[in-house]
Design goal:
two-stranded antiparallel ribbon; 193 residues; two-stranded antiparallel sheet; alpha+beta
């Protein structure tokens, strides 16, 4: 059992507060984005809404916005869509516009992996009105470093996003182009039309 442990497991065992640090940092980033644009009624939050905590039989759980497909099921993430070959050239353009938006609002990112990008409908307001489908970053945001320079420095957040896209998990079929800050189809991937 010990041979499978990594530094994260060890730190959580020695420092129990490390278990909820990433959740706290996500809430910090959510709060920062909301408070910076508090009176901007046209601001479209590119990350999932965080609604607080609820008591469960396993302890407290974080309640997060659910992104759905057209049938009301939980929407697929980027990795699932590319592997299922249901990812089109139009989807790629939409994803790249969304990534440009993340840079524009200056997200503090910890994990820009393909499992954290979800395409689907958001449900807003008392009537639970469904929006047009779009990309949402559902996890992996927040400054998780011990020295939290990214929380206060836009250039540090930009460099951090650049590094996260370069070093992050890859998905077969897409290639990150760091000089353009966008994805492109890999040579061996044929998108559906």
């Amino acid at each position: 059992m010990f041979d499978r442990w990594n530094f994260g497991h060890l730190s959580q065992r020695l420092f129990p507060a490390a278990r909820y640090r990433s959740t706290a940092k996500q809430y910090d980033e959510y709060r920062r984005l909301i408070m910076e644009r508090l009176f901007d009624t046209g601001f479209d939050l590119p990350i999932s809404h965080l609604y607080g905590f609820v008591k469960t039989n396993l302890g407290f759980g974080c309640v997060t916005e659910r992104i759905t497909d057209a049938q009301g099921n939980t929407a697929q993430n980027l990795r699932e869509r590319v592997l299922a070959r249901s990812f089109t050239a139009d989807d790629l353009e939409g994803l790249n516009r969304f990534i440009a938006r993340l840079y524009e609002v200056s997200i503090c990112a910890a994990d820009m992996g393909p499992a954290n990008f979800v395409h689907g409908h958001r449900h807003i307001g008392p009537e639970n009105a469904r929006t047009a489908p779009g990309w949402v970053l559902v996890d992996g945001f927040g400054d998780r470093f011990a020295i939290t320079i990214r929380s206060v420095s836009r250039p540090a957040r930009t460099r951090g996003m650049d590094r996260r896209f370069i070093r992050g998990k890859k998905v077969k079929g897409l290639v990150w182009q760091p000089d353009q800050r966008r994805f492109a189809f890999a040579e061996d991937y044929t998108p559906i039309r």
